[in-house]
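Anyone up for a design puzzle?
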């Protein structure tokens, strides 16, 4: 398997795990994670599936991040589309059971946050570009000079407020997800000795040029 193939496989695995983790948080049945509150609210008001709503929100966020100067890679584009597809498939086939008690719900949410973190390790490590929401967070940090943590609070807080106004599910699980995702990511990245700042992401244009060169070679 070529280096490109390995990277692309990592990307797809990462996006699937990310979607699986998102559904696990949903199935905790204690309130959705911040962005999924917005996705659910949009779905309720438009008749879209959660997956399609996720894609629509991701496209809008990606355009905003691009206009603010952030690079878009093939990973950013696939993040926008495939996570939504995977979300719907996981929900349709009921791959994750719904929890019905507080304790089991918390356990499912925490497990989901770690699955999301592992998925992030794979798709960020592929080097094909950050996801739309990550890119927007970085764009806000660059443009305003505020700390990345504050930028994350602004982005996710806006998503929760918008989703809640649209009728999305907000509960203790939303709070756990909002504050727990950072802890889960820190633990997973530390255990795997992964530093995302050292990953060199390539743009869509760079990926296309690589594929053209590979085609000429063969």
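Challenge accepted. My sequence:
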């Amino acid at each position: 398997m070529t280096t490109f193939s390995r990277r692309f496989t990592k990307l797809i695995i990462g996006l699937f795990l990310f979607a699986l983790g998102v559904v696990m948080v949903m199935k905790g049945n204690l309130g959705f994670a911040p962005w999924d509150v917005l996705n659910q609210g949009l779905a309720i008001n438009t008749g879209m599936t959660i997956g399609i709503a996720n894609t629509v929100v991701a496209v809008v966020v990606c355009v905003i991040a691009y206009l603010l100067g952030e690079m878009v890679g093939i990973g950013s584009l696939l993040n926008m589309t495939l996570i939504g597809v995977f979300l719907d498939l996981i929900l349709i086939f009921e791959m994750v059971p719904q929890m019905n008690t507080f304790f089991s719900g918390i356990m499912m949410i925490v497990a989901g946050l770690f699955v999301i973190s592992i998925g992030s390790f794979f798709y960020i490590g592929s080097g094909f570009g950050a996801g739309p929401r990550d890119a927007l967070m970085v764009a806000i940090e660059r443009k305003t000079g505020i700390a990345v943590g504050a930028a994350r609070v602004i982005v996710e807080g806006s998503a929760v407020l918008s989703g809640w106004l649209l009728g999305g599910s907000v509960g203790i699980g939303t709070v756990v997800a909002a504050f727990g995702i950072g802890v889960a990511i820190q633990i997973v990245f530390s255990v795997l000795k992964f530093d995302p700042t050292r990953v060199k992401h390539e743009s869509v244009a760079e990926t296309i040029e690589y594929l053209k060169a590979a085609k000429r070679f063969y």
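A detail worth pointing out: Residues 3-217 form one domain.
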